[in-house]
Design a protein that fits this description.
This protein has about 325 residues and is of the alpha/beta class. It has a single domain (about 15-85, about 100-320), classed as Aminopeptidase (3-Layer(aba) Sandwich), CATH 3.40.630.10. Helix content is about 35%, strand content about 20%. The chain has helices spanning about 15-35, 40-60, 125-140, 170-180, 230-240, 265-270, 300-320, and strands at about 65-70, 75-80, 105-115, 150-155, 180-190, 220-225, 245-250, 275. The protein has an 8-stranded mixed beta sheet, with helices on both faces. Helix 1 (about 15-35) crosses helix 7 (about 300-320) and helix 5 packs across helix 7. The longest helix is centred in the first third of the chain and has 21 residues, at about 15-35. It is globular, with a radius of gyration of 19 Å. The mean pLDDT is about 95.
Length: about 325
């Protein structure tokens, strides 16, 4: 396993600068133009869903709505799937389905929730995650994959639906299990836009501060104990593809913060799942506040992070 990058950050490439500008546009649309988005502001929640659908469609992806009811309102998970190309047999020959690669039967889910906590426009939580989701979907829309790759925007991650049956990712993961789908990796992009080089800017749940850095300039990969192989795989891939600090933890799910996003829903169904995060409330001073606005995001570092995550997604979609 490669160690975390600890040097100065290189200047953004031309491609990363373009990515930065697109990420900024998406965050400003979600958290600025649309604003707070939840069942209290139902029209805004629907407008966010329409914006995400339109962004998937503009990338050439077909979007499927998984609609369910929460407190008498229709809520939507939005799925854009990229399937492995089918083997085409020579003319006159039949396809032997036994020859279909096993990887094609495996599913990788990349997800982010698009709702916000009441009282917050949610630029970092979770406009940054949704912007990353859209950027990754655009990058992979025309690329071949060996595994089925799904980009999914979830409704109702925040309170009062958090870790309940009305949580969008809980509904989605439950459907995966009902269909007996082989989800080999579920990734939750959660609050990934804030970084600080100030000493002491990073905090942790009890007992972890002696193990991890106290400067909040890194990206975290967090899973439960059963997801350790996926945590290791993703962190290794990120370190191969990005010169950016990163930390990993396969931790007891009961530790505060470890299960506080959509990856938790996949754990409930026995699937390996990892949260990618800037650690949210353990670093971000505007967490769940009205001040979580687009100007608080570090778009240069977010672009570096998303560029590195593209390498992670590429390995997950194509490597056993």
């Amino acid at each position: 396993m490669q160690t975390s990058y600890r040097g100065p950050l290189a200047e953004l490439t031309v491609e990363q600068k373009a990515l930065r500008d697109v990420l900024r546009r998406d965050v400003e649309t979600l958290a600025g133009k649309i604003g707070e988005r939840n069942l209290r502001y139902y029209e805004s929640l629907q407008n966010a869903a329409l914006y995400i659908e339109g962004s998937f469609a503009a990338a050439g992806l077909n979007v499927t709505r998984q609609t369910y009811q929460a407190d008498g309102r229709a809520c939507h998970n939005l799925e854009a799937e990229i399937a492995p190309a089918e083997e085409i047999p020579p003319a006159g020959e039949r396809l032997d389905h036994r020859a279909i690669p096993p990887l094609a039967q495996e599913v990788v889910v990349i997800g982010a929730h698009y709702d916000t906590v009441p009282g917050s426009p949610g630029a970092n939580d979770n406009g940054s995650g949704v912007a990353a989701l859209l950027a990754l979907a655009r990058r992979f829309a025309s690329r071949p994959v060996q595994r089925t790759l799904r980009f999914v925007a979830f409704a109702n991650e925040e309170q009062p639906y958090f870790q309940t049956g009305a949580m969008g990712s809980r509904v989605y993961a439950g459907r995966c299990r009902q269909r007996n789908e082989n989800v080999v990796a579920a990734v939750s992009l959660e609050t990934i836009g804030y970084y600080s080089d100030a000493p002491g800017s990073q905090r942790y749940p009890p007992l972890l501060s002696a193990v991890y850095p106290t400067t909040g300039n890194f990206l975290g990969f967090v899973g439960n104990l059963r997801s350790r192989p996926l945590v290791d795989q993703m962190t290794g891939a990120f370190r191969r593809h990005a010169r950016f600090p990163s930390e990993k933890g396969a931790l007891p799910s009961g530790l505060p913060g470890v299960g506080w996003s959509d990856h938790w829903s996949f754990w409930q169904e026995g699937y390996p799942a990892v949260m990618v995060t800037d650690t949210a409330m353990y670093r971000y001073p505007h967490y769940h506040l009205a001040s979580d606005t687009p100007d608080k995001i570090d778009y240069d570092r977010l672009a570096r992070v998303v560029d590195g995550l593209a390498g992670v997604v590429g390995e997950l979609a194509n490597s056993p």
